[in-house]
Design goal:
Strand content: 15-25%
Helix content: 40-55%
Shape: elongated
Number of strands: 30
Number of helices: 28
Radius of gyration: 37 Å
Distance between the termini: 50 Å
Strand order of the largest sheet: 3-6-2-1-9-11-12-10
Oligomer: single chain
Length: 812
C-alpha cells in the first residue's frame, strides 16, 4: 500500500489535476493507494485574505468570495464530463460554499474573527478540492479526515493526539478501498469536536500520519519540482536534483528554507523507516528524490545548500550571563511561550553572549519579549538591551558525510573569505550534518553560488569573466574562449562565462553569459556610453562569484581600476603593462591586496606575449633560487626592424614594414623610444625581487630625441635622414659577422636598455623575425643561463597567454 500526497500546484490547474488522475489510476492498478490533497493552489491564502476583508467590514469580501466560487465551478465544468457526476458534485460544492458564505457574512456583521472561526474558514479549501478530485478519479472513495485526525490543545496550540489518531486511522482504513481520497491539513479537536488544522504544509503531515499508522510501503509527495535540489535553482542555474537523502539531511534542508516538504512530515515515517519519494506532477517520469535511513554509495560530503533570506540576528549579551545557569532556558522559554521560532543559535565560549536567528517578521516581537524577560538585569546594567541586526540571510550546508571529511568548515569559510563574504555568526552541531552561518543578505546569491561551485555540487566549475578591450588582443581572446568553450566543459568540467564586455566607450553585461559570436559587437554598438568609473561600479554591483577582470587595453585609466577590483575580491588579469610598471609602491600594493584578499593578480603577457617568462622567474624564486642577471630582447617590433634592415631595406623602410605588418604601434615612435622595453625590464626586475623604478633604467637609444618631437607626419618625413648612417654601420657589422639587438639588461641591481652588437657566438644572434628571448642567470643557472625564446608579439599569442592566465586561476 502506498500513500500519495498532491500539493496545491498539483490540483491548481486543469493540466495538473488531469495529470494527477492519470498518476493515481495507473498506480491503483498495482496496489491500493490513499490520496491526500491540498486546496487548489492559492486558495488557502485567498480564504484568509477574504476573512480579513470581512473582519474590516469591507464589502469587497463578496467579490473575492465569488471569484473563488467561479474558479471552482470553472474547474468542475472543464474536467468532469459525466453530466450526472457533475451535477452531484455541484450540489456538494455549492453546499460547502453556502456554509462558507454564511461564516463570512457573520464575520462581516459582528466584526469578530476568532481562532475557531478562522480554522473553520481555511478548512473549506481542502474540503472543496478533495471532493472534486474524488469525483474526477475513477473508483475513488472520499473520507473525511476530521473523523480520524485528532488534535488537542497544548500551550494554546493544536497538537496532534498521535495515539488516538493512529487508532482511528487504522480503524477507518481496516477495509482498504482501491483508491481512498482524503482532504489534507484538516483535523478536529478531540474534546470539543471543533475544526482545527495541522498548520501550513499540514497536508504533507496528514499523509505522513496515515502512512505511518498503516505501515505503508512508501510515502510519495507530489509537487511542482523534480525533487530536492542541491540549491535554489532560481539563484543557481547549475543546481540539480538530489537522487537520495537521509531523513536527517532532508530535515535539515527543510528547516533551512527548502520548501519541498513540510518538516514535521518526516518524523512519523522516519520512526517507521518508511521511505519518502518526492515527485513532480508535471514531470511524472522523472526519478525524483528518495528519502530513507541509509544511503548507499554516498561519497559527497555536502548534499545540498539551503537558505533563509530575511533573517534577523538578535544578540543577548551581558556579564551576568557568564557561568549563570538558566539564562538560555529563559531566552528560549520566553520566545516559545510567545510563539516565536528560533532556527539558529550561536553562543560564544565565554558565555557572555548568545545570538539567535529569527525571521524578520518576528524580530520586533522577539526583542520586546526578551527585553521584558531580562528587564531587571538590564536595569541594573548586568545585561545590555537586546541588539537586533536585520537585512541578513542564513545559509546552511547539509550532508551526513561532513563528519567523515576533515576540513569542511575550514574550506567553507576560506571559500567565503576569498569571495569577500564576511560571516557574521555561525553554528555547527555535534552531529556535523549541518553548518549554518549568517551573512549580509546582499551576498546571499554570491555565497550560494561560490559554495555550490567549490564543493563540487555543480556539474561545472565556473569562472565569470569581464573582458575589457575588444581590439586585436581582446577580440582574439573572445574568439579563443568561444572556440574552446565546449571542449573545456567536456574535458575540464570548466565553464568560462563571459558576463561583461567593454570597449573604449561602451559596455554590455549579462550575468547569465554573453553570446560570443559576432552578436556581441552589435550589442556593444547599441549599448549606452559607459566610462571607466561606471564600468567599475557595475562590475562591483553585480557581485558575481568567481569574478575575473581581464584587461586587454593599454589604458592608464583602466589600469587604475585594478585596486578597486582586488579590494572587492575580483581577480585581475592584465595584458596592459601600465599597472605592473607603475610606481613600485602601487605595484606592491596591488600584489599585497590580491594576497590579502585571496584573489589573483596575473600579468604574464606583460613581457614576451605568450612566453612563460614571469611565471618561470616566480617558480625559480619560489624554489629558493636567486636571479643574478637578466638579458633580454623584449621588443618584437625592434627585433623585426633590425632583422629587416639590409642592403636593400634601409632603416626607414624597415620601420614602415613593421607598422604595415602590425608589429608596431600605429605611431612607431612608441616602440622606437624604448618605453615599452623599459616597462618590461622594470617588471622583470621586480619579479626577480628588486625594487626598481622606470627612472632607474639607463637609456641608450638609437634614434635622436629630436625625431620624437612634432607630428607623426614630421617623423616619417625626417626618418630617411638616418638611413645613410645606419647603412654604413650595417656594412661594418656585416663584415665583422655581427648583428644588432636592442637588449634590456638587469645585472646585480643595475638596469639599462641599449642597442648592442652581438656576434654569432651570442645566443641572441640568430633571433629571427619578431621573436623575443630572455636569458636568466641565477645561483643555479650561473654557468649555463636559462634561455626562454619564441614569439614575443602578435595578437593571437598574446591572447593565448591571457587565456593561460585565466586557466591558471581556474586551477584545472
Amino acid at each position: 500500500m502506498k500513500v500519495l500526497k498532491f500539493g496545491g500546484t498539483s490540483v491548481g490547474s486543469v493540466e495538473s489535476i488531469l495529470s494527477l488522475k492519470a498518476i493515481v489510476e495507473k498506480e491503483a492498478q498495482k496496489q491500493p493507494v490513499i490520496i491526500v490533497v491540498s486546496a487548489l493552489g492559492g486558495i488557502t491564502d485567498k480564504l484568509l485574505a477574504t476573512s480579513q476583508l470581512a473582519l474590516k467590514g469591507d464589502e469587497a469580501w463578496k467579490e473575492e468570495f465569488q471569484a473563488m466560487v467561479d474558479r471552482h465551478h470553472k474547474m468542475i465544468d472543464t474536467i468532469i464530463t459525466d453530466t450526472r457526476k457533475r451535477e452531484n458534485l455541484f450540489k456538494i460544492v455549492d453546499s460547502l460554499f453556502e456554509q462558507l458564505r454564511s461564516i463570512y457574512f457573520g464575520v462581516f456583521l459582528i466584526h469578530d474573527l476568532s481562532k475557531k472561526t478562522q480554522d473553520a474558514i481555511v478548512s473549506y479549501g481542502e474540503r472543496l478540492s478533495s471532493n472534486i478530485v474524488a469525483t474526477l478519479v475513477h473508483g475513488a472513495k472520499w473520507f473525511d479526515s476530521r473523523d480520524f485526525i485528532k488534535t488537542v490543545q497544548k500551550n494554546h496550540k493544536n497538537t496532534l493526539d498521535s495515539e488516538l489518531t493512529n487508532r482511528l486511522v487504522r480503524r477507518t482504513f481496516s477495509d482498504l478501498p482501491r483508491i481512498s481520497l482524503v482532504p489534507g491539513f484538516i483535523s478536529m479537536d478531540r474534546d470539543t469536536d471543533e475544526i482545527t488544522n495541522l498548520g501550513r504544509g499540514g497536508s504533507d503531515y496528514t499523509a505522513a500520519i496515515i502512512a505511518a499508522a498503516l505501515d505503508a510501503d512508501i510515502l510519495e509527495i507530489w509537487t511542482d519540482v523534480d525533487g530536492f535540489m542541491t540549491a535554489d535553482p532560481r539563484v543557481i542555474k547549475t543546481a540539480y536534483t538530489i537522487n537520495e537523502l537521509s531523513y536527517i539531511e532532508a530535515m535539515e534542508l527543510c528547516n533551512f528554507g527548502a520548501k519541498v516538504i513540510y518538516p514535521p512530515t518526516i518524523y512519523p515515517v522516519c520512526v517507521k523507516n518508511i521511505p519518502i519519494r518526492v515527485k513532480n506532477t508535471f514531470n511524472p517520469d522523472a526519478e525524483g528524490t528518495i528519502i530513507k535511513a541509509k544511503i548507499a554509495n554516498d561519497s559527497k560530503p555536502i548534499k545540498g545548500i539551503s537558505s533563509i533570506n530575511g533573517t534577523t540576528l538578535i544578540t543577548v549579551t551581558g556579564l551576568s550571563m557568564v557561568g549563570v545557569i538558566g539564562v538560555n532556558r529563559r531566552i528560549f522559554t520566553a520566545l516559545a511561550d510567545n510563539g516565536i521560532s528560533v532556527f539558529m543559535v550561536s553562543q560564544a565560549s565565554s558565555e557572555n553572549s548568545t545570538s539567535i536567528g529569527v525571521r524578520d517578521q518576528d524580530s520586533q516581537a522577539a526583542v520586546k519579549v526578551l527585553n521584558n524577560e531580562f528587564a531587571k538585569e538590564i536595569e541594573t546594567g548586568a545585561m545590555f538591551p537586546m541588539h537586533a541586526e536585520s537585512g541578513l540571510a542564513t545559509i546552511a550546508i547539509v550532508g551526513e558525510n561532513m563528519k567523515h571529511t576533515p576540513g569542511i568548515a575550514g574550506k567553507l569559510f576560506g571559500t567565503l573569505g576569498r569571495s569577500g563574504i564576511s560571516v557574521i555568526a555561525c553554528a555547527q552541531g555535534a552531529s556535523e550534518t549541518n553548518i549554518s552561518f549568517v551573512v549580509d543578505s546582499k551576498y546571499l546569491r554570491k555565497a550560494l553560488n561560490v559554495i555550490h561551485d567549490s564543493f563540487f555540487l555543480s556539474e561545472y566549475k565556473v569562472l565569470n569573466l569581464f573582458v575589457c578591450g575588444v581590439g586585436t588582443v581582446g577580440g582574439q581572446l573572445l574568439e579563443q574562449i568561444h572556440d574552446q568553450y565546449e571542449e573545456l566543459k567536456r574535458t575540464k568540467r570548466l565553464k568560462l562565462n563571459v558576463v561583461g564586455i567593454a570597449s573604449s566607450k561602451k559596455a554590455i553585461f549579462n550575468r547569465d553569459g554573453i553570446d560570443l559570436t559576432t552578436t556581441y559587437r552589435e550589442l556593444l554598438e547599441q549599448a549606452p556610453l559607459c566610462n571607466d568609473n561606471a564600468l567599475r561600479d557595475e562590475i562591483i554591483r553585480m557581485n558575481i562569484f568567481n569574478s575575473v577582470f581581464v584587461d586587454c587595453t593599454a589604458s592608464k585609466d583602466v589600469a587604475q581600476l585594478y585596486q578597486s577590483f582586488l579590494e572587492h575580491n575580483i581577480s585581475v588579469i592584465a595584458a596592459n603593462k601600465i599597472a605592473a610598471s607603475s610606481s613600485y609602491d602601487n605595484y606592491i600594493q596591488l600584489k599585497e591586496t590580491a594576497l590579502a584578499r585571496g584573489v589573483k593578480f596575473r600579468y604574464e603577457t606583460n613581457v614576451g606575449a605568450g612566453l612563460p617568462i614571469i611565471g618561470t622567474i616566480n617558480d625559480l624564486r619560489n624554489s629558493g633560487d636567486v636571479i643574478l642577471k637578466i638579458e633580454a630582447v623584449l621588443s618584437g617590433t625592434l627585433n623585426f626592424i633590425f632583422n629587416e634592415i639590409s642592403a636593400d631595406v634601409p632603416l626607414s623602410e624597415a620601420v614602415r614594414r613593421a607598422k604595415e605588418h602590425g608589429y608596431s604601434e600605429p605611431d612607431p615612435r612608441i616602440d622606437l623610444s624604448g618605453k615599452d622595453v623599459i616597462r618590461k625590464l622594470v617588471i622583470l626586475a621586480r619579479e626577480a625581487g628588486y625594487k626598481v623604478e622606470k627612472a632607474d633604467v639607463e637609456k641608450h637609444l638609437f634614434i635622436p630625441d629630436s625625431f620624437f618631437e612634432g607630428t607623426i607626419d614630421d617623423f616619417w618625413k625626417n626618418l630617411p635622414q638616418l638611413d645613410a648612417d645606419f647603412e654604413e654601420r650595417r656594412k661594418r657589422l656585416e663584415a665583422e659577422g655581427k648583428r644588432w639587438r636592442f637588449v634590456a639588461t638587469f645585472d646585480h641591481g643595475k638596469t639599462n636598455v641599449a642597442l648592442k652588437e652581438v656576434d654569432m657566438r651570442h645566443p641572441f644572434y640568430n633571433l629571427e623575425g619578431s621573436n623575443n628571448v630572455v636569458s636568466l642567470t641565477t645561483e643555479r643557472y650561473r654557468e649555463y643561463p636559462m634561455l626562454i625564446q619564441g614569439y614575443g608579439a602578435g595578437a593571437s599569442v598574446t591572447a593565448a597567454g591571457v587565456f593561460a592566465n585565466i586557466m591558471s586561476i581556474a586551477n584545472v
